[in-house]
Design goal:
Blueprint (H helix, E strand, L loop, with lengths): L11 H16 L5 H13 L3 H8 L4 E5 L4 E7 L2 E4 L4 E2 L2 E7 L2 E5 L4 E2 L3 E17 L3 E11 L2 E3 L11 E18 L1
Helix pairs in contact: 1-2, 1-3
């Protein structure tokens, strides 16, 4: 969504993206049940991008850029969880400080065979959950006082999706769990 075009009409996809952000915020304890219900109702009836932006303006940034098929997660402190039956973009930019991030791909719908996650994580934990046919590559990670704990890799014939982790981790951990 673009804040510079607040009068532009919102699409179903725009509304769904805001609903996802609101649900994650409620799961993180940022919104109580009453506030979540109010904002969800407003999101589903919103007509413009400006109305949608007002509903998430006080929440941590997590936006999907349709033109680039990228999810950008920027957060300082707390938790960020991505889960459920959602469409996974081809690229995720993860810029966090002192944050616990969980990507649960158990029920995810992948839009490509390769998911590139560009990380800039300081003092945090990155958890992955998913099916055994997902392979995680950490060849592109620069680790400083960090640890990576992954399950043994599958054979190429069993691989459905390859996740490429690139970027840097400082005092951070990457942990994979299988469903």
């Amino acid at each position: 969504m673009s804040n510079d075009l607040p009068d532009l009409r919102a699409s179903h996809e725009d509304r769904e993206r805001v609903v996802d952000v609101l649900r994650v915020a409620a799961g993180d304890g940022r919104l109580d049940a009453e506030e979540l219900d109010r904002r969800l109702e407003s999101a589903l009836s919103a007509r413009t991008l400006g109305e949608l932006a007002d509903l998430t303006g006080d929440l941590p940034t997590a936006r999907a850029d349709r033109d680039k098929d990228v999810l950008v997660v920027e957060q300082h402190g707390g938790k960020y969880a991505w889960e459920g039956r959602r469409s996974v973009p081809a690229r995720i930019e993860l810029r966090t400080r002192e944050c616990r991030v969980t990507f649960d791909f158990t029920h995810a719908v992948f839009t490509s065979d390769v998911l590139r996650i560009e990380t800039d994580m300081v003092h945090g934990k990155l958890f992955f959950a998913g099916s055994p046919d997902i392979v995680i590559s950490t060849d592109g990670l620069n680790l400083t006082y960090s640890k990576v704990k992954l399950r043994p890799k599958n054979t190429a014939a069993d691989t459905r999706v390859r996740i490429e982790l690139v970027g840097k981790l400082v005092h951070a951990k990457v942990i994979e769990r299988r469903a």
